[in-house]
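Crash report, auto-generated. Payload:
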Amino acid sequence: MSATEEFDVIVVGGGPAGSTAATLVARQGHRVALLEKERFPRYQIGESLLPATVHGVCRLLGVTGELEAAGFMVKRGGSFRWGTSPEPWNFLFALSPELSGPTSYAYQVDRMTFDDILLKNAARHGVDVREETPVLEAVRTGGRVTGVRCTGPSGAVGELSAAHVLDASGNTGRLHAAVGGERHHSDFFQNLAVFGYFEGGGRLPAPDSGNILCAAFDEGWLWYIPLSDTLTSVGAVLNRDQAARIQADRERTLMESVDACAIVRDLLAGATRVTEGTYGRIRVRKDYSYANSAFWAPGIALIGDAACFIDPVFSTGVHLATYGGLLAARSVNSVLAGELTEERAFTEFEGRYRREYAVFCEFLSAFYDMQVNEESYFWKARKVTNFGAGDLEAFATLVAGANSGERALVEPEALTERFTASSRDLAGAVERTGAARTESGERMTELFRTPVVGEVMTEMNRIQHRGVVGESSEAPLLPGGLVPAADGLRWAEPA
Ligand code: FAD
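Recovered output after restart:
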C-alpha cells in the first residue's frame, strides 16, 4: 500500500451501511475505496429485514435478483405475543396502505450471505474493496478529515486520502470520535441480548411461518427468526442487571429464558441447539441503543451502527444502516458534482437520519410501554413514564435540528406526554386488532391509522416506492430541506 493513494471517497466497513454507500457513490463514476477489517463472509446479528431495505435500497443497488436466488425466508411481517392479548397478533407489511401488493414482504437473512452479496456487488460496481484492512485512525489536515491510516493484509501501515470519509464501521468502530460530539447511550433501552441457533424448531401456521416472532415474558422478551425451513435464530433480550448471570452461563440463561416463555418453549420442543460451526456459539451483545450527538464534520460522516442504533424489537438496524448509506451517498455525490456545499448536503443527511431515528425511538418506546406486567422489574422499568432525564435530554439533543421548534421535543414533560399518547394509541390499535393472527383485512388497518405507526412508515414507504417505480417526485421531508434528484442518487432543491 503506497502512502499516496487518492480516492474521492473512503468507506470504512463493509456491512450493509458501507456497501450501500460505496456502491451508490461508485455508480456516479467516483473513485471509491472500501476498507473492511474482516474477510467476508463474516458473522453478524441482525437477520430480520424490512421491505424498505429489500425493495427500496436493494433495488437501487441492483441486487434484487441475487436476493431472490439466495432463497432467503420470506417475511410477511411480525407476530407478537406482546401487550394484553394472550394470543399472538400480527403486524403485516401487506396492510400498510402504500406497501400492499407484490412487494409487501421482506426477508429473514443469514447475514454472512446477505452482507457478502452487498459487498461483492460494490466491487462489481467499481468499488476498490480491500478486506483484512482495518482502519486505525482518521487523518486530518487543518480542521478537516482528509483520509485514514490503515493496516493492509501484509501488516504494512499505509495512508489513503479522499475528499470524504464515510465511517460505517458498526458498533465496535472507534472512528466516530473524529466527528466530535458525544455518544449518548439510552438508559431506557439498556438491554442485553443472549442468542443462539436451533435446528428443527416449529413454525407458526402458514401464511405466517416466515414471520419474526417476538414474545414477551416476565424477564424480557425473545426473538424467534426462521432462517430456513429448519434453522432458527433465537435470542433473549434481558435487563442489563442480568450480566453476571449471562457471564456465568450463557447457554443456561438462554435456555431458562426459553423455558419461561411458553410460545417459544413449545416451538422449540423438538429442536436441538446448533453447537458447531459459526452458528454453534452462544453470543452476547450489550448496551446497544445509542446515538452520536453529531453525525458529520468536515470530511467525515457516520452511517449505520457507527452513527446510531436503537433496540432490535422492530428489526430497524439494517434499515437505518442502508438508509444512512443512501442519504450519505446522495450528499457525497451532490458535493462531488459541485451542485451543493458540504454544509447544505450533509445538513440534509443528518436531519433526515435523525428524524428517522427519532420516529423509531418514539414508536419503540410506545411498543415497550404496551406490555403490562406489574410483577416484573424489566417491564415496569420500561414504562414511558420511566423515561429518565438523561434519555429525554439525549432524545431532545438527538432530534434537535430535525424537528426544531416543536415544543414536545424541547420540554421533557411534553415529550413524556407525547410518548404516553403514542403508547395509548398503539395499545388501543392492537387491542382492536385483537387476536387476528392469520386474518388480515379491516382489523389490521387499525395499526396503520395510529399516528406513531404512520410516522414510522412515511419515509420507509417513500424509499420502497422509489425503489419499485424508479423516479418519483417528493416534497421536502424537512422544513427548508432538499428533495432526492430524479435518479435518487443526489439531492436537488425543491421545484
Ligand atoms: P455492521 O454490519 O456491524 O458492519 C460494520 C463492518 O465494519 C463490519 O464488517 C466490521 O468488520 C467492519 N469494521 C469495524 N471496525 C473496522 C475498522 N476499524 N476498519 C475496517 N472495518 C471495520 N437489525 C435488523 O435489521 N434486524 C434484526 O433482526 C436485528 N437484530 C439485532 C439483534 C441484536 C441483539 C442487535 C444488537 C442488533 C440487531 N440488529 C438487527 C442490528 C444490526 O445488527 C445492525 O444495525 C447492522 O448490522 C448495522 O449495519 P452496519 O453496516 O452499520 O454495521
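Post-recovery validation: The radius of gyration is 22 Å.
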